[in-house]
Each structure stands twice: as C-alpha cells, then as structure tokens.
Amino acid sequence: MTALLIAAVLIGGAAVPAWAHDASGTASGSAWPEIVLALLLAVVVGRYLDGLSSLRRRARGGRSLLHWRAACFLAGCLALAGALLSPLHGLAERFFWVHMIEHELLMVVAAPLLVAARPAAVLLWSLPLAWRTGLSAGLVGSTFRRLWDVATRPLVAWSLHTVALWLWHLPSLFDAAIENEFVHALQHTTFLAAAIAYWSSLLRARHGLASRGAAVFSLFATSMQCGVLGALLALANRPLYAAYTRAPALDPVIDQHLAGLVMWVPVSIVYGVAAIPLLLAWLREADGRVRRWEARL
Fold it and tell me: Could you tell me which of 116, 115, 82 has the C-alpha nearest to residue 101?
C-alpha cells in the first residue's frame, strides 16, 4: 500500500504543472513536470534513507533482509526515474516502441520492485514519533486500507490490471495521452497503480494452496494477454495510433511492429518466469498434502 502512495505522489505531482502547462498553451518544451517529479523522488528517497539509517541502528538481526528490501526500493525508484525523467520519456513521444518500453519499466520493473521492498516501516521510521504513531493508527482500519485490501485480492487485482492494460491501448485514449500531458500523467499513474495492486496480490499469495494456484493462473493469464496485445500490434498492417503518424520519426507500421514485439516477447517472458517459483511451490505443497493424506489411510 505504501508503494502505491509513493507512486501516486510521484507521478501525480507532475500532473498539476503539466495540466497548467497544457491549459496555458505554453510551448511544449516546459520542464516543470520533470522538475517537480525529480524533486518529489529526491524527497522520498531521502526520507527512506533516513528511515533506513534509524532502523539499522536499532535492528539486532535481520539486517540482510533490510538491505535486500532497500536495494529493491532504490532500484524501483531508479526504474521510475529511468521511465519518467530520462531521455527515454522524450523519445517516447516520437517512437511508439520507446513508449512501450517506458510503460513496461513502470509495470514490470518499478512496480514489482517497490512491492518487494515493502517500504512502509522504513518510511515511518524517518518521521518524528508523534507523526509515526498518528499515521500508523490512522491507516489501521481506515477506508483506504479496506479498499486496498479488496483491490489486492487476486481476481480483483488481475481485473484492474487487465482493464488498465487494454483500456489505455484503445487508439482514442492512447492518442489522447500522447497529445495531452495531463492525460499522459493519468495514464502512467493508472498503469503503475494497477501494476502495484497486481504484484501486491501475488505477494499475498505466498502461502496456501488455493492462493498460490490463483497466483500461478493469474501470471500465466497475464502473460498470455500481453502476448495477444503484442501480437495485434506486431501483425497489424496499418498504423492503429494516429499520434505516431503525424511527422513520424520512423515508418509508423515498423514503429508499431517494434512496439508489439516489446509487449509480445520480453514482457510475456517476465510474467511467465515470475510464475515458475510459485508453480513449483504450489506443486510441492500439493504433493505434501497428498502424501499426508495417503499416510492417514
């Protein structure tokens, strides 16, 4: 849940100046969104490192796990910066295949890393005691917490992820995101929030035969639908998105085919590979239950 809040603050913080920039008709080269996003990212990382230092001083054990999660968090923030603050972001407005890489950095790199980091405790430890106590008490039993618990149930999370993926790839919405910075920020926020909910649902499925089975099927289903969407883009014989046909930097059909291959091959592989350890754990648990049942006969 903390990862979702971080993502919303980081990307959403860029949406206001981006919207103001569009509404005022200022030249499209405004750097305000990137400046705001970079500052927010620096603040979050700074608070995290401060909290990490506090926890390390108090921890008597488990430092290796703490360091592992810190590495995941910093790598996730680096992936966010790579997607939204690097030259990749500017190139994504000219090349569809680069835009697809940007989205996958958010959904299959940054999101699982932030979820694996589980940064809530570290960030809380960066705050004064009164704030830490108040925030902890406020989140327990809150409406937002209950909604998040629902959103991270396997079927709900998979549905949200699927809807976000297909909805934003409708030509009308995708073109709107290219042409309007506020819509673009909303697209990125939706992708990242849905991905964080999805990967969080998989983290919840580490124990229990039924939950592990649901997670395995969820990952394989996601891998298949990414493959289907990628194939639709890679095999189409005409451009589907008008935004990339206006003064194109690359032949629009070739550009679209490359974007489809990005979605089809590496992304499908990531979800498929992620399913393997869960599948093995599921099979081991199922085999253990069968053996215990046979022993009682």
Answer: 82
The residues near 25 (Cβ < 8 Å, ≥ 6 apart) are none
Residue-number span of the structural domain to which 280 is assigned: 2-296
Per-residue model confidence as pLDDT tens digits over 14-48:
444 444 434 333 334 456 777 888 888 999 999 99
Q: Measured between alpha carbons, how far is 36 from 212 in angstroms, rounded to an integer?
A: 40
Instruction: Residue 32: name the closest of 52, 11, 47, 16 by CA.
Output: 16
Sequence-distant (6+) residues with CB within 8 A of 220 are 271, 272, 275
- Our CA angle for 45, 50, 51, nearest 5°, is 95
Prediction pTM value: 0.82
Residues 211-268 have pLDDT tens digits of 778 888 889 899 999 999 999 999 999 999 999 998 788 899 999 999 999 999 898 8
Domain count, the chain: 1
